[in-house]
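explain this.
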Amino acid sequence: MTFAKIELTASDNAEFSNIGDETLDGLFGSNRTMPAQGITEFYGASGSGKTQIVLHLALFFLTHSNNPRVVYVSTESFFPIKRFRELLQQKLTRDYENGSEKSADKSKTVEEYGNRLLLTHEPSVESLMNCLTVRIPKLVSECDGIKCVIVDSIAAVFRCVRKSEIPYDERSRILFKMAAALKRLSVEKGMSVIVTNQVSDIFPNDVFHVNQRLVADKKPALGLSWSHCVTTRILVSKCDPMSIPVTLPGGKQSQLALRRLHVISSPFCPNSSTFFVVDSNGISSVHENPTL
């Protein structure tokens, strides 16, 4: 396996990425880009759209750089290869039709782009720990760099582990070690590090998540230990009612599940939110915020 390299000598020189939708990318501030510094977390309930978002981010790196490699670490279900090929084909078609200067190389096929996506499935705490702290750093040191690491999801391997098997203090130690390895890759190699996370309930006496209670009745999984490791935290959620009429780009009307992206905390992005839907073409923003 080979990798593409990004140099990062200071915070101002960090690489940037985006989802590919102008309105959704507006969440990341005036530059409409997400900086590759620290750990960016998308958290939300099952089916909220987290995987769809990180697939789009993977597509951005694969099609907007010179021969990059993206590592995608799945921990729960296997990588949705059929959906990824569908999104990649549609993105290449749109880029070619739009004639964008940043569009993908027309001489490359879907297979050639897809072959630069490096997949690994890590279903246990031990295998994920080894992957993040040993295998990926070793590959980075031996190869010509790497563009992005995506972990989907960071919490899944801990959900099926009993407290007697991994006590809370040991779990915190493991999480800190994983986070340190990921942040080292981000700072020293200029890589984008993106993770998804699951959720748990917020109880009435949970004073540490009062701000998140204002936008959702769930909090990120893995507790405060992991929360202190995250640089940018973005909530992905489905809205009630589950389905309403929405206006897609081009004025097309459709009845789709409405979803929301909300920046909870970030040193780079303002606290704001925007709505979107997921269809066969991928992620599309809703131009006018609906009345919920």
Summary: The longest helix spans residues 168-189. The domain at 11-235 is CATH 3.40.50.300 (Rossmann fold).
